[in-house]
Structure formats: structure tokens, C-alpha cells
Amino acid sequence: MWWFVSPRIAFGEDALDYLEEVKARKAVIVTDQGIRKVGFVERITSYLEKNATEVETFEAVEPDPSKETVFKCVELLKRFEPELIIGLGGGSPIDVAKAAWLLYENPGLSLEEVTPFAEVTTGKKARLITIPTTSGGGAELSWAMVVTDKTEQRKLEPATRAVIADICILDPSLVSKMPPQLTADTGLDALANCIESYVCEWRNDFTDAFAIKAMSLIFEYLPKVYKNGDDVVARERMQNAAAMAGLAFGNSQVTIAHSMGHALGSIFHVSHGRSVEVVLPYVIQYTKTVAADRYAELAAAIGIKAKSSEEATDRLVVAVKELIKQLNEPLSIKEIGISEEDFEEKLGLLVERAELDTCTITSPRVPFEDEFRKLFLHAYEGRDVDF
Ligand SMILES: [Zn+2]
Q1: What was the pLDDT predicted at 64?
Q2: How far, in Å, CA of 225 to CA of 57, rounded?
Q3: Has this prediction a pTM greater than 0.70?
């Protein structure tokens, strides 16, 4: 048995107006300082106050949020007892909102115990609304969370369907001010999400449909929003694409571009989107031996015509690289600015972390240690994979 789960989604121009219908005595907005500065917190609050909702804000979420931050947020929830929690921002505030909601609803639960098989529930005390301000990772729709355990220097990835939001609001006005680099970083994460979802071992008919549509939207609209952030139509379509890619991988999985990206991101402090994007072309080349037919379907979705699946996959790699180049993002780990000495010193750790990552087992081709090492080295140099 398998499930396809999704929040109810309000999308398009003025989607935020949905908040006028929300009735709650008390609400907590979980966000970060940057979102506060651009005035989004006030915008959300003014909607809620129209219905006399009392609002508290938790805005202490940092990038790569820690367990301690989640605990602090839970303390506020316990003290204030809201009926509504709103995760507002990029992936970090939304993940904190999800994790804090789960712990608020299940006293005594630890994040280490949270797996897709754990019997936990939400909704007895509060509802969750997610409102993303980036178009990329799909945290607003997914049941995964990333929380850092600072003492053990590792990332926890608790996942449970219980943290699927009740409502997700995709309002293009909230993503229209993203600077070009953030647009590119997050947009390429969405691309990796849809490509990897489509080839991973847990793919299914439902996620395939979302991935294929997201693929064509991303190739059409990501270059447009990068060049002109004020293109509202392109912003809206890209926001939809990122959400669809989120639903695709959230209901299947991703593969080793994410395993390698997670390792790279945590060791060298590279943003999630960039650390995944930079290895993606090499991962497609490596998995081509077993997934060319799947890649050919993704290639067809962006108008690539070829005589064989192998040729279509090669052209797909070229198209992905061209898109990355157009967005002025790095095509090799070296280009990120990581020195050869630093890279070599950490190579063993990178390989170890990638091997242990939960995204590795769902790859259509699973690398052994020496192949992971070779993959990292090829991605460092930007060399085509031929093994
Ligand atoms: Zn991702």
C-alpha cells in the first residue's frame, strides 16, 4: 500500500486572501528575521487580526535550524496554546513549524523517534498552515524535516505524514522579491527534486505526473524569473512548478544528487540548492546505465528529440548544464570556491555521509564507496562520468 498525500493548496494571485476565512482564537507565526524585515509578518498578522485572532510570532529560526530552536518554539506553543500555527518563509522556518507542531501535539516524543512508521498524530491542539517565500524545496508540502543536532554535528531527518500541513498557501506576491541568486539556487533544487523523483525506486504514477509537468514548467519559467524577477506570470508558474516537484518527491523519494548534496552542504556550508545542483549532471550520467528510458521521458517533456534513450539522456545532461550556466550557478564543486586541499581532506567524510544518507537506497543505481569517491572527484573537476 502506498499513499499520495498533500495539503489543500490555495494558489495564484491573492491566494493570501484565504486567511480572511481562517478562524482561530490564537495563532503563532513561525518565521525568521529576514521575513520580518520585508514586512511579510505584518501582512499575515493584519489578515488574522481582522478575525480577532491573537497573534504571537516566533522569529528566531536560523538557516539549518537546530533542535534547540525547535524546542524553544515548542516552549512558546505550550505557553501560548495556539489553535493555529503558521510556517512562513523558506524551508527552515517551515521545517521548524512542522517539527514544533509535532512535539506540541505529542508531549514526550523525541525527534529521533520520528520515522514514517511512527504512530503519531497532529490536529488535536492546532492546525498548520504553510506559506512559502521561496520556490524550491517543497518543505511547505512535504512530510520531511531537516533539523541539525549541533552537539553531534549531524542532520536529523525526521519524517512523518502527521506533519503534512492542513493548508498550503502559494501566493506569488511573496516570492516576487527573491534576489536572482536565491531564485536560481531554490529553482535548481526544484529541478533536482523532479528529476530525481522521476527516476527513484519509489516513483509511482501519481508522482510521475507531477514531476513531468514540473520539469517543463521549470525549463520554461526559471530562466525568465532569473532574468526578470518582476515577471509575475513567470513567478507564479515557477512557484507552482516548485510545489509540484515537492509533491512528486514528497510522495516518492530523491536519489544520490541529494545524498551527495546533503554531505557537501553540511561539510562546506553550501546552500541546499547549490550543493545538489552542482552534482546533478554527473549523477544523471552515472545512473544513465539503468535509467536511460526514464531520463528520455524527462527529456521529451522539454522538447528533446533523439533516436535512442541514451542519446536523449546525453542531451538532457547538456540541457541541464545549459540551464545551470544561464543562471550563473557553478558546474563543478571547484567553481564553488572549495580548494583542492580542503576537498581532499574531507573527501572521506563526504563519501561516508553520502553512503549513509537515506536518499541513497532509492537510487536506481547505488554506488559503492569507491564509486561515490569517483563521483565526487568527477563533480569536483566537472568531468563527464564514464563509469
Ligand atoms: Zn532538494
Answers
A1: 87
A2: 31
A3: yes
